[in-house]
Specification:
Radius of gyration: 18 Å
Oligomer: single chain
Number of helices: 6
Shape: globular
Number of domains: 1
Largest sheet: none
């Protein structure tokens, strides 16, 4: 379990740290804008958006470790489909969490560069998901992933109205092989 924790921490520092902290910080050093005025409504609205994104990311990473026994990284993916927590509502909550953080940073600092970066991230996330992640999940998890994919939307969260794939078997004493992947 310690190894899994360390792998998740390393991933979090490297990938979200790079894309959600370092790149926006680098872009902000190129902006010639005013300093943050902490008394403005935009700032007060941006802080909870950043916090919500960070909490959502941590919740997702926890589910990947606890349920899937892996990390969000494609080189160390969950061993099971993870359809718990935020993955019951939407298939790609980690990407949504990252976008919340970056959009919040754009609002906090009033940066059009960071806002444009969020748009580029959204397009890159979508292309990565449809071109790499989903085909890989289909190959790796087969029918469990296809049932999950059918039940849960890719980008727009929706209240889970039906049991996730495998839940009926789990209630009857069967094996739950589906959790939810990215």
């Amino acid at each position: 379990m310690l190894s899994l924790l360390i792998r998740n921490i390393v991933f979090t520092v490297v990938v979200p740290g790079l894309g959600g902290v370092w790149v926006p910080g680098w872009l902000l050093t190129r902006d010639v804008g005013p300093a943050v005025d902490w008394a403005t409504p935009v700032v007060w609205a941006a802080v909870p958006v950043i916090a919500a994104g960070a909490v959502l990311y941590l919740w997702c990473a926890w589910k990947f470790a606890a349920v899937g026994r892996g990390t969000p990284g494609p080189w160390d993916p969950p061993r099971r489909v993870v359809a718990h927590g935020p993955y019951r509502w939407v298939r790609n909550p980690i990407y949504l969490a990252a976008l919340l953080v970056v959009l919040g940073e754009a609002g906090l600092f009033g940066s059009l560069r960071v806002l444009a970066y969020a748009g580029v991230l959204a397009v890159c996330f979508h292309l990565f998901v449809i071109g790499y992640e989903e085909p890989g999940l289909r190959r790796r998890f087969g029918p469990a992933y296809l049932a999950y994919r059918h039940a849960v939307p890719r980008w727009i969260p929706r209240h889970p109205s039906a049991p996730m794939p495998g839940e009926g078997a789990a209630r009857r004493g069967g094996s739950l092989r589906a959790g939810t992947g990215p």
